[in-house]
Specification:
This protein is of the alpha+beta class. It is built from five helices and 15 strands. The strands form three sheets. Strands 3-2-4-1-12-9-13 form a seven-stranded antiparallel β-sheet, covered by helices on one side.
């Protein structure tokens, strides 16, 4: 299956170290050779880079590794295709506008018996993946619940998205990362982990390639950076392994709310 990577930070931060580890899994230490993508938020704007080539061989990926774009929210994905052909339109992350903001989404897993369940009107998929169809359906449900004007408080929106993710999980494997550029939410179906780095910072060593970084020389004492990944990227740090149905909502590097979506899903309409 695919692999996910995301970052939430309280100051503009580059993700070069973590991304360097991820791209090795796209053809060197992993079988995820069917494309990759990454989105960086800058205020309300965003930059997205995608390639249908394996990340370990992509010239665009080499650019990202050598060009430290600083952002507070990043979402990345490497693909092992199971629904939809290998093509740029089927490459994550996917982006849509909602409430005057760019929403970005990436999914790891595989769904079955989903086509009739993901009928939408306003949000339409461009490609042919189960992932993009699920994203469009989620946004459709969000607008149906909360309307065309953004609510004052966004946390209930993401709690609702967690309940939707739990429903979709009944159709297969559905590890999710989604952001509006301010908040970043992750939902675990079967494989997802995260780490929050803060002072005192130390050294970290990547699992997938012989790269070590001393975060103490790259940060300030006030920095807080959370990294979410399908599997831990370093072998000398304590990563938190999430459990099925568990979800976390990050903002500026910190967890602002969390929960078990199995409890939420029982209160919502079912697919």
């Amino acid at each position: 299956m695919c692999e996910l990577l995301a970052m939430s930070a309280n100051v503009p931060t580059d993700i070069v170290f973590s991304f360097t580890g991820l791209v090795e899994r796209g053809g060197v230490t992993g079988p995820h050779v069917d494309g990759w993508g990454i989105t960086f938020y800058e205020g309300k704007g965003s930059r997205t880079f995608k390639d249908a080539a394996p990340s370990s061989q992509s010239h665009i990926a080499k650019l990202i590794k050598s060009y430290p774009i600083k952002s507070e929210v990043v979402i990345s994905h490497i693909r092992q295709a199971n629904r939809g052909c290998v093509a740029l339109e089927n490459t994550h992350p996917f982006t849509r506008e909602l409430w005057g903001r760019y929403w970005t989404y990436a999914h790891n897993g595989q769904l079955s018996d989903y086509i009739d369940k993901f009928a939408t009107k306003r949000f339409q998929p461009v490609g042919s993946t189960d992932s993009e169809m699920a994203f469009c359906w989620i946004l459709e449900q969000v607008t149906s619940r909360f309307g065309d004007i953004p609510p004052v408080e966004m946390q209930p929106v993401f709690e609702f998205i967690a309940s939707l993710a739990e429903q979709i999980r009944q159709l297969g494997v559905f590890n999710l990362i989604i952001s509006d550029g301010d908040f970043l939410m992750c939902f675990c179906s079967n494989n997802l982990s995260y780490i929050t780095r803060r002072a005192p910072f130390g050294k970290a060593k990547l699992i997938d390639t012989d790269v070590v970084i001393d975060f103490d020389t790259e940060t300030t004492p006030n920095d807080v950076v959370s990294i979410i990944a399908t599997r831990p990227l370093t072998n000398n740090e304590n990563w938190y392994i999430m459990q099925p149905s568990e979800w976390k909502l990050f903002r500026l590097g910190e967890i602002v709310t969390e929960g078990c979506a199995a409890e939420l899903g029982a209160r919502e309409c079912q697919l």
